[in-house]
Amino acid sequence: MNLMANILLNVLIAFLVGSVLFGLQRKIMARIQMRPGPPIIQHLLHTLKFFIKESSFPKTAAMPFYIAITAMLCVIWVSAVIVGPVTEGSLLLIFAIYALHKIVEHNAGSSSGSPYGKLSCVRAVFSAAAEVPLFAVLIIIYFATGTMNIAQIVSFQTANGPLIYSIPLAAAMFFVLILSKAPYSPFAITKGKDIISGYETEHFGLLRGYLMMSESIAWYMLLWVFLTVFIGGLSPLWYLVGMVSLSTIVAFINAT
């Protein structure tokens, strides 16, 4: 398989799996709260729906930045897929991409001119506090393995066992980061219902579709990094089992 086909396949898998995992979380949360809940593929259907709906732009939007910022969010997470599952490159680069995502997420709200988007910007800054332990996680992983290369980290675990046993504190810290990025209440403060949809409020049609697609890919990538770095290289089936398990745990915590 050539590189371009590999990239497209991995991006498609990340989008589809991430979307279904979002739907699974909603379903589990609904069941815990004694509700039937939406179909598991609801988030995927919503995303696809926006791609065929008419796009409109608020008069207060800072054009063309308002459109460009949406494209940047997609490009950022597609880049993460390339660095991660496709090439198994630098873990440091993936975290740099994540940091860039926080900056773009902040500007996505301010570019629309909406008060809800601006409140989302402020909350995005506060939510950055959850990313501080990332630096400690990186340092611990480097001291444990002597490398920041994902392929070499996987090889290290093949020879010495999963890192989740040798550095459980780092794994717990990274899981807290995943939990803080859960897309539903009470952790989704940048898109809380009290501010409608946060930075997504004034994005319609195609733009909203791209935002939702990037969210699905982002969730997939966070889970992929956790499983790869702390458990090791897995088969596609075990990656799926691990992602479903982590998403289920997050859903239980969210619902309770």
From TrEMBL:
Coiled coil: none annotated. GO terms for cellular component: plasma membrane. Keywords: Membrane, Transmembrane, Transmembrane helix, Ubiquinone. Signal peptide: none annotated. InterPro entries: ComplexI_Subunit1 (IPR052561), NADH_UbQ_OxRdtase_su1/FPO (IPR001694). It is found in: Membrane. This is NADH-ubiquinone oxidoreductase. It comes from Methanobacterium subterraneum.
